[in-house]
Design brief:
Layout: E1 3-6, E2 9-12, H1 13-73, E3 79-86, E4 89-95, E5 100-106, E6 109-114, H2 115-159
Antiparallel strand pairs: 1-2, 3-4, 5-6
Helix pairs in contact: 1-2
Organism: Polysphondylium violaceum
Protein name: Prefoldin alpha subunit family protein
InterPro entries: Prefoldin, Prefoldin_subunit_alpha
């Protein structure tokens, strides 16, 4: 059996082949972990976008509730307002009757509520959305933890000696 000297050590052909095999396996694991991390980053980005949409919905419902409470406190029977037609294009409008309001309950469906019912619905919707927001935050934190662990695993594999 042929012996080869590498940095103060002698290795046989069999040991060299085994070392090369282990090195290749390590590289394959590192590549696998890096692809896994890339997929986790894609999931993380998607979840963060969804969480941001939910936070925006909560903010919109909160603003609507404040407006309803303002109408009730000031006992407004009619009012002038600006209506968003879309793409931030606004027109002035006059609301003749402020006793009821149409609220988007989801899927593009708008339901007519009196002001008290509207506040009740908004409170329930905000509670639901806050639970959903918390769930997304937990999922995001779990993915961040997985990414950190996988990155640590890659660093540990890279730190191993090549022999």
């Amino acid at each position: 059996m042929k012996k080869v000297s590498i940095q103060d050590g002698s290795f046989s052909d069999k040991e060299l082949i085994e070392n090369e095999k282990l090195l290749r396996e390590r590289i394959e694991y590192i590549d696998y972990y890096e692809r896994f991390i890339q997929n986790l980053h894609i999931d993380l980005e998607r979840l963060m976008i969804e969480r941001e949409k939910i936070a925006e919905d909560i903010e919109n419902y909160s603003e609507l509730k404040s407006n309803i409470e303002l109408i009730k406190e000031n006992k407004l029977n009619s009012m002038k307002t600006m209506i968003n037609l879309g793409l931030e294009c606004y027109v002035q409008a006059k609301v003749e009757d402020t006793n009821s309001i149409f609220i988007d309950v989801g899927l593009g469906i708008h339901v007519k509520f009196n002001l008290n019912e509207g506040i009740q619905f908004i409170n329930q919707k905000e509670a639901y959305l806050n639970v959903k927001l918390d769930n997304y935050t937990k999922k995001i934190n779990q993915i961040k933890t997985k990414i950190d662990l996988m990155q640590k695993g890659i660093n540990d594999l890279n730190a191993l000696p090549n022999q």
